[in-house]
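FORM 12-B: Structure-to-Sequence Request
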C-alpha cells in the first residue's frame, strides 16, 4: 500500500537515546499513570496479580543482550511506543476514520467514540505500537500526551510527555522535527538519529539515537572516534527483535 506522506505544520515527536536508557521502566509507569488518571477512558488491567495478567500499556521497554563485532557484549534497552509516522498505515486502514493524524502537529490519535475495536490498525502497525483495551473494546495508543503539552494549567516544565518528564537518565527528548533548530533536530543531526525499520515506508517521526559500543578495558580510547560507525550496526538486531514482538 503506498500513499503520499501527510504534510503537517509541525512534526512533534520523541528522540529516544538507546545509549543512555538504563531500562528502569520509569517512563512506562508514568505513562500508565498519566493515561489512566487523565485523558479518555482509563487503561485497564485484568487479572493483574493472577497467572495471566493482561493490560494496556502505551509504552514498553524491552531489554536485549547484544554482541557487536570486536566489542564486549552489552545490554541495550529499547523503549517502544507509537512513532507518529508521517505515512501511517494505521490511519489508512481504519474503516471508520477513528484513527487520524493531526494536520497542525502530526500527532496520531484515536477517536474512541468512533473506534469499533476491529483491530485492523494493530495488524497494520509494523512496530506493535497499538494496544486493544480488552475492557473498553477500543484501541489505545500513545497520544504524545496531547493533554499535557498544550495544558496551560500545568507548570511549563510539565508541558512535555509524561515519559520525557520522568526519565531519570534524560534518555527521552520531545520537540518539533519540522524546525531544524529544535533540540530534537539537533540531536538527530549530531548523533546520527535513525528511523526504525525504514524499509516499511512509514516515515516515523520519532527517532532513535544508536547505542555506542562499550570499550574493552584495555582499549585505546584515543581512537574512540573510529568506532562510531559500528554504533549504527548495533541497531541491526532491532529489526529481528521487532519481528518477534509482532
Ligand atoms: Fe500508526 Fe504504528 Fe506508526 Fe504509530 S507507529 S503511527 S500506531 S503505524
Ligand atoms: Fe529508559 Fe528513561 Fe524509560 Fe528509564 S525512563 S526505561 S531510562 S527511557
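FORM 12-B RESPONSE
SEQUENCE OUT:
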Amino acid at each position: 500500500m503506498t500513499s503520499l506522506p501527510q504534510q503537517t505544520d509541525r512534526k512533534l515527536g520523541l528522540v529516544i537515546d538507546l545509549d543512555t536508557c538504563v531500562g528502569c521502566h520509569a517512563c512506562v509507569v508514568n505513562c500508565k499513570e498519566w493515561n489512566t488518571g487523565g485523558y479518555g477512558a482509563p487503561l485497564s488491567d485484568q487479572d493483574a496479580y493472577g497467572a495471566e495478567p493482561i493490560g494496556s500499556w502505551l509504552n514498553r521497554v524491552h531489554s536485549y543482550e547484544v554482541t557487536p563485532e570486536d566489542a564486549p557484549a552489552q545490554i541495550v534497552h529499547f523503549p517502544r511506543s507509537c512513532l507518529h509516522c508521517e505515512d501511517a498505515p494505521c490511519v489508512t486502514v481504519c474503516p471508520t476514520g477513528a484513527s487520524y493524524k493531526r494536520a497542525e502537529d502530526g500527532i496520531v490519535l484515536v477517536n474512541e467514540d468512533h473506534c469499533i475495536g476491529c483491530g485492523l490498525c494493530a495488524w497494520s502497525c509494523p512496530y506493535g505500537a497499538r494496544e486493544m483495551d480488552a475492557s473498553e473494546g477500543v484501541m489505545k495508543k500513545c497520544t504524545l500526551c496531547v493533554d499535557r503539552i498544550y495544558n496551560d494549567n500545568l507548570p511549563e516544565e510539565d508541558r512535555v510527555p509524561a515519559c520525557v518528564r520522568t526519565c531519570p537518565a534524560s534518555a527521552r527528548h520531545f520537540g518539533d522535527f519540522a524546525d531544524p533548530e529544535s533540540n530534537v533536530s539537533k540531536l538527530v543531526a549530531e548523533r546520527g538519529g535513525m528511523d526504525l525499520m525504514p524499509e516499511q515506508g512509514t516515515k516515523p517521526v520519532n527517532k532513535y539515537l544508536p547505542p555506542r559500543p562499550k570499550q574493552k578495558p584495555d582499549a585505546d580510547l584515543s581512537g574512540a572516534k573510529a568506532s562510531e560507525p559500528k554504533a549504527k550496526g548495533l541497531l541491526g538486531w532491532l529489526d529481528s527483535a521487532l519481528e518477534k514482538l509482532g
